[in-house]
Amino acid sequence: MSERAPRGKFNWGIERVFEHFYFPHMEEVRLEFEPRVLMILMDARPIAEDRLQRFAQRLMDAGVIFFVCWGPGCKRMHDAADWARSAETLEALRRGEDPEEVFEARNPIIMTTYHYPHDEEVEQTAEFWCRFCYPPAAWGPVRTWTSVVIGNEEWHDRLVHHIETRPLSRLERGLSPEPPGEETE
């Protein structure tokens, strides 16, 4: 029997590119367009909602389809991404357009999660990002996992160290998943 994982709804075992960025301020973040899974680490507490929403829109315009948010106030960034997509959808409807057609070049849906530092360390959220944040295959090929850390170099260093030294899961290597309770490296 083959060790390859079934190729159903997700592209397991794909060769991914990990890229990591540090920016002192969110206004400095610039990403070229490419479909990507984003892990964003920042303290969103002091930032006005409208600024977070504009930032989320800029990230979606750069191809982000999956937001994994970590840091103090991370739910605010998560919500900003959801509201930014909702605003796009409402604007398309106001113009009499079909949102699915408007978003055809991008995906009509985005995924968002948030992870509080008092519940999870950077490394735990990074593990979630690596192991479970595979967009559905119907969304087309997504091979870039991007981390953006804003304003905290220690978080950036911890994240990069973890990603560079972690063992790959069986799914990440393109193998059949582990039976429940028998998960190994």
Automatic annotation (TrEMBL):
<dbReference type="InterPro" id="IPR056101">
    <property type="entry name" value="DUF7684"/>
</dbReference>
<protein>
    <recommendedName>
        <fullName>DUF7684 domain-containing protein</fullName>
    </recommendedName>
</protein>
<dbReference type="Pfam" id="PF24733">
    <property type="entry name" value="DUF7684"/>
</dbReference>
<feature type="domain" description="DUF7684">
    <location>
        <begin position="28"/>
        <end position="129"/>
    </location>
</feature>
